[in-house]
Amino acid sequence: MTDPNKPDQNISEDDWASAMSEQEQEENTADGEEEDPWAAAMAEQQTAEEEAAAEEAVEAAEETPASEAKAASDDVFRPLTQEDGAAASRDLEMIMDIPVKLTVELGRTKLTIKQLLELAQGSVIELEGLAGEPMDILINGYLVAQGEVVVIDDKYGIRITEIITPSERIHKLNR
């Protein structure tokens, strides 16, 4: 048998066998010393994290007297008190100033690009909604109520006539 890189040199089967056994010995010694450098690094990091957590637990135990120790269930399932009701209202107050987009929809229609380009001042667009039909009131794009148009001091407004329940919203989506 010959080496493709050195066609003049003959290589015997014994040379191949010895090279293979040499390679296996190197792999075995490498396996014995360190399997994978990444695995060793990950194991070292995990050990360091476990030691740090253990130290923190010991420090916390030293700082907290036994008389002040709480059961874990008190932290997870705190008993309800009057103060908790006040905290819930404070949480609700936090969201009161978040702006939402309210949209009143008269109706919808579909146009082709040709029809759109033909629009001019004075053009009339026919909508799917019927005259006198309640208009949809959307909050952030979700239907929440229906109402009718009112005019107050030369300004348009909408009077809510019906609040849409979640089950009615689903029913309207299926239409």
TrEMBL record:
Residues 23-37, 47-62 have a biased composition (Acidic residues). It is found in: Cell membrane; Bacterial flagellum basal body. Gene3D superfamilies: SpoA-like. SUPFAM superfamilies: Surface presentation of antigens (SPOA) (SSF101801). Keywords: Bacterial flagellum, Cell membrane, Cell projection, Chemotaxis, Cilium, Flagellar rotation, Flagellum, Membrane. Its main location: membrane. InterPro entries: FliN (IPR012826), FliN-like_C (IPR001543), FliN/MopA/SpaO (IPR051469), FliN_T3SS_HrcQb (IPR001172), SpoA-like_sf (IPR036429). Residues 94-164 form the Flagellar motor switch protein FliN-like C-terminal domain. Residues 1-79 are annotated as: Disordered. It comes from the Bacteria. It is a peripheral membrane protein. FliN is one of three proteins (FliG, FliN, FliM) that form the rotor-mounted switch complex (C ring), located at the base of the basal body. This complex interacts with the CheY and CheZ chemotaxis proteins, in addition to contacting components of the motor that determine the direction of flagellar rotation. Belongs to the FliN/MopA/SpaO family. This is Flagellar motor switch protein FliN. It comes from Vreelandella gomseomensis. The gene is fliN.
